[in-house]
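Dear colleague,

Thank you for sharing your sequence with our group. We've completed the structure prediction you requested, and as agreed, I am returning the results in plain text so they can be pasted directly into your records. Please verify that the sequence below matches your submission; if there's any discrepancy, let me know and we will rerun it promptly.
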Amino acid sequence: MLASKSIEQIAPRLYQSDQKLHQLLSKLELLQYINPINSEKERLKFYRSRYYYEPDFRYPKCQHNLSKIRKQLNSIKVHKIEHPLAQHLYEQTIWYFNGILDCISTVGQGRLFLNSSLKTFGAPSHSELQFAHQILEKTSQDQYSDQLIFSTNDAVKYMKEYNKKYGFDVTVEGVTHITSKAMVSNRLPAVFLRKNQKFSENELVALANHEIGVHLVTTFNAKKQPLKIYEFGTPFNVESQEGLAVFSEYYSGSLTLTRLRELALRVILADRVVKDYSFSSSFDLLLTTYGLDRDTAFKMVTRL
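Please find the predicted structure tokens below.
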């Protein structure tokens, strides 16, 4: 593998473009901005309304000058990069992060955010929806359940212990500002676990393999590469990351049918978001058709 100095000598324009991209994008992470900061208050309002109220979520404000970042991003002279394939990769990456900037700048703005999201990440295909429905038709909610016996503090200890085999320098802590049970920040890096949650033993194995065994492994691998582009991700890396992470759950023996149902329901909910179904109607679907308890249903619809 070439050292960064060698790349600077052999392909100085590639090196310059790579360094500039890293300087502009290394502090931006979409997941920082899409977790509601008032989800608990809105959950109580929603329950008191007997599930008719449409939650009005508030989101963290971005402190970066996104217009300035966009202007500087689009001024990078990638057309001068020495190799055409590398030039194409960096052009595509700039296109992709323009979409991410659109998403960050329109968080909480309804249709504007949705359109930015669709442009950058796409929507469930017809075949994916069919597959999701097949999973749900062939399984049932009551058939597969794990005992939720571990607290968030237990989960934090488990993740720290699991991380020892890799030796990554990461923060692992319980937080209130995420809608999922666990989330990785590649920027910090850190593993966040939602406070006041209960976890099954199987969930802990799955989350450790998913969040640390894939997301953090690829993050720390990227940091060792001579080009910085891999640290913040090439276009459509999310598809590969999440695919590998779920495959890792399977390979560790922790991918249950309950988890498959959860993934299938996310596909269906994503499609409903695209088609402009209301929060309350999607919540009702999870309760009445798929048998979820109301707290699980609320969190799942909030996440989507």
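Summary note from our side: The CA atoms of residues 102 and 220 lie 27 Å apart.

Kind regards,
the structure core
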